Amino acid sequence: MRTRTIKKNFWFSYAEDKQLKYLSSILNLSEANTIRKLLYETQVKQCPTKEFYEAIDKINKIGININQLARIANSTGKIYEEKLNQQFNELEKLRNVIYERFI
Q1: Helices and strands of the chain, counted as H and E runs
Q2: In this structure, are residues 44 and 52 in contact, taking their beta carbons and an 8 Å threshold?
Q3: pLDDT for 96 beyond 80
Q4: What pLDDT score was predicted for residue 39?
Q5: What is the DSSP track for 76-98?
Q6: pTM, to two decimals
């Protein structure tokens, strides 16, 4: 008895067909078995959420703030330690949130 009972038809571009033929030849498998191998042995990562990109955007903004404070410190010799510590603390909190939610 046949174990594969569902037939799928796909449309490939010329380049995709060429790539499939190439992969099949180097793996020494049929095109169907090459697709099965890719299906079962390839790890796919889920797309990041909007929340992830918002967190990255916040990190970039904090980095800009730290860079501005460093520029002021280099040009005037004054270090705004309180503001700098505040930015580093905010960065650390955000880092912890990213690790808890996304990693």
Answers
A1: 4, 0
A2: no
A3: yes
A4: 92
A5: HS---HHHHHHHHHHHHHHHHHH
A6: 0.51
Token pair 């930015």 in the structure block, residue: 87
Do 48 and 98 contact (CB within 8 A), yes or no? no
Judged against a pLDDT cut of 90, whether residue 23 lies above it is answered with yes
Amino acid of residue 44? V
Integer Cα distance of 74 and 48 in angstroms: 37
Query: What is the distance between the alpha carbons of residues 16 and 13, in angstroms, rounded to a whole number?
Result: 5
Contact 69, 81 (CB under 8 A): no
- The first and second tokens of residue 14, run together, are 């010329």
Helices (H), 28-49: 31-41
Torsions phi, psi of 30, nearest 5?
A: -70, 165
